[in-house]
Amino acid sequence: MALRPFLGDHLSQTGKAADELRDVILCIAQAGIQIQAALRKTDTGLSGTQNQFGEEQVKLDIVSDDIIQKHLKESGLVASFISEEQKDVIELSSTAPYSVVYDPLDGSSLVDVNFAVGSIFGIYRGAELIGKKPKQQVAALYVLYGPRTLLVYCTGNGVHEFILNDTGEFILLRKFLKVSDTAKNFAPGNLSSIMDDKPYHDVFHAWLKDKMTLRYSGCMVADIHHILSKGQGVFTYPAGSKYPDGKLRLVFECGPFAYLMEHAGGAASDGTGDIMDKKITDIDQRTPIIIGSKKEVERVCDLLS
Ligand code: F6P
Ligand code: MG
Q1: Is pLDDT at 174 greater than 60 in this prediction?
Q2: Domain boundaries, the chain
Q3: The pTM is what?
Q4: Quick one: pLDDT at residue 46?
Q5: Which member of 3, 17, 137, 303 has the lowest number of beta carbons within 10 Å of its beta carbon?
């Protein structure tokens, strides 16, 4: 049997990543390995602090953020970064080639119940992030910490899935993941808003009428990975009375996932336009999101409009 490629070799050969981009992604992968170790041994409780959005932080949010920051700084290749757990853009070196946006531990309110959680990353060229659009990312990736630790990346040439092996290396599991145009699974975020949002109520009933299967964990990384892994599905987190602009963040969550989903043949919309074309005006920018199989995304957007 042919040996499965390691992440570094795959990034150069199939990912066609420039050496420096490959090295940034390999640094992030090392951070992911340390986070999965931290998840096994760190107390799952609250830290007693809040993030920039006023949300309670668990200790693991802070531990994960520290691990990622340390790796980004040490790489020497990162001009600036923004973390969902930090208030400001952190500038490191104006001459370094890339900027990184990340959510260090998405779904962290689920760590105490031992559900899957993940880290999300988007990479842009240059130091400036405000004014850019997610389609200008040069790479996006996530690490999913479930029963197994997986890393999924795209550098513009397909979406590829890696697994952390016993010797602490990411090896290729599946290459060129594809998402079909139609969906059988649905993952409805903000579902309670169907009580006062008739269009979303109609979407939900369309899914039930079509006998689609519910798959929702409450961790965006796991729920989007479900779609990329099964090759079909739709995830929604529309705006509603509780979250007038949506809950999920354009910079750290929706932007990287839109990039990955579109490169796998799927779509990502805010209900009216492509997430990839949404200009970043603010670090704390939220957006509604409908993401997954193309035709299902179109149908949901039509019903919501
Ligand atoms: O980062 C926010 C997040 O935890 C996502 O991972 C997830 O999709 C969403 O919030 C879940 O929101 P809710 O608790 O409203 O279902
Ligand atoms: Mg998150």
Answers
A1: yes
A2: 7-174, 185-304
A3: 0.97
A4: 87
A5: 3
Check if 190 has its Cβ closer than 6 Å to any atom of ligand 1: yes
Q: Is 189 in the pocket of ligand 1 (CB under 6 A)?
A: yes
d(CA 247, CA 238): 8
Average pLDDT, the chain: 96
pLDDT, mean of residues 63-80: 97
Assigned CATH for 185-304: 3.40.190.80
For residue 135, pLDDT over 90 is answered with yes
Distance 38 CA to ligand 1 centre (A): 22
Q: Is 224 in the pocket of ligand 1 (CB under 6 A)?
A: no
Short-list 177, 171, 167, 52, CA closest to 104:
52
* Residue-level pLDDT at 240: 87
Question: Would you say residue 1 has pLDDT above 80?
Answer: no
CATH class of the domain comprising 7-174: alpha beta
State the CB neighbour count (10 A cutoff) for residue 68: 27
Structure tokens belonging to residue 103: 């959510």
Per-residue model confidence as pLDDT tens digits over 183-208: 999 999 999 999 999 999 999 999 99
* Contact 107 CB / ligand 1 (< 6 Å): yes
